[in-house]
Amino acid sequence: MTVQRFAMIWGILFLLIGIGGFLFVEPHTHPDVTMEAGLGLELGLFPVNLLHNLVHIAFGLWGLLAARSLGAARGYAKATAIIYSLFVIMGLIPAARLWTTFGLVPLYGHDIWLHVILAAGAAYFGFIKREGDVRR
Predict the structure, then answer these.
(1) Average pLDDT over residues 50-69
(2) Taking the domains of the chain in order of start, what are their residue ranges?
């Protein structure tokens, strides 16, 4: 798979996740989340709210736009890897309300392992994969 194809696929996945956060949500409360608009559990597992869904949609649109060139796709992959790795770390730290991005976006629970997968895939395509690498 090329880096550009990765950006397109990740873009589509992020868009689906973001839109799903508006459609497939069960009610949920958390005392550290002050941005309660749209607060719930997507698919009954992943804590989301309005801002969380908008972040996913933004990453989705960015991925689709980045897929148009190799340089943009590689930059998208690197940025996604770094940002989502930071989200993983923040999701593990309840102190100072980091696990809810200071009360704005929930990053805890099942979001942690999902963010690990998103960051790892992006890291491979951003930092390791080289165009022209072909496995036989």
Answers:
(1) 98
(2) 3-128
